Amino acid sequence: MEKVIAGKTIAVNEEGYLTDFKQWDKSIADELAAEAEISLSPRHWEVLSYLQTEYKNEVPLSIRKIGKSGVVDIKEFYQLFPKAPLKTATKIAGIPKPASCI
């Protein structure tokens, strides 16, 4: 499936998650964030970078793991990404939805 995001044709799955991380860039993140009614701040970018690093290292992600990461606590994670934080943050980061998400 394909979707035009930030003027680029991107491969996505049925839920809108990118299926090829190599297609991700910051303009795509900005547009996906806008769809989720989020304006990305430097703090958001720190969290997104952490999520991408964990993904590249094949570390399974969960809310609990993120809360213990030292990068962001759970309360702030929910403030940054209020609606379904892990699903929203991973979608904006251009990585697959974690198995821990329903």
Secondary structure layout plus pairing:
Elements: E1 2-5, E2 8-11, H1 26-35, H2 42-56, H3 63-67, H4 74-80, H5 85-93
Helix pairs in contact: 1-5, 2-5
Question: How would you summarize this macromolecular structure in one to three sentences?
Answer:
The protein has helices spanning 26-35, 42-56, 63-67, 74-80, 85-93; strands at residues 2-5, 8-11. It is mostly helical and 102 residues long.
Molecular structure report:
The protein has about 100 residues and is mainly α. It has one domain (about 1-95). The chain is about 45% helix and about 10% strand. The protein has helices at about 25-35, 40-55, 65, 75-80, 85-95, and strands spanning about 1-5, 10. Strands 1-2 form a two-stranded antiparallel sheet. Strand 1 (about 1-5) and strand 2 form a beta hairpin. Helix 1 runs antiparallel to helix 5 (about 85-95). About 25% of the residues are buried.
**What is the total domain count?**
1
| Overall pLDDT score | 94
End-to-end distance: 21 Å
Strand order of the largest sheet: 1-2
Report the uncertain regions.
none
Structural class based on helices, strands and sheet pairing: mainly alpha
Mind telling me the C-alpha Rg?
13 Å
Task: Note the beta-strand portion.
Answer: 5-15%
* Number of E-type strands: 2
Descriptive keywords:
single chain; 102 residues; two-stranded antiparallel ribbon; 5 helices; 2 strands
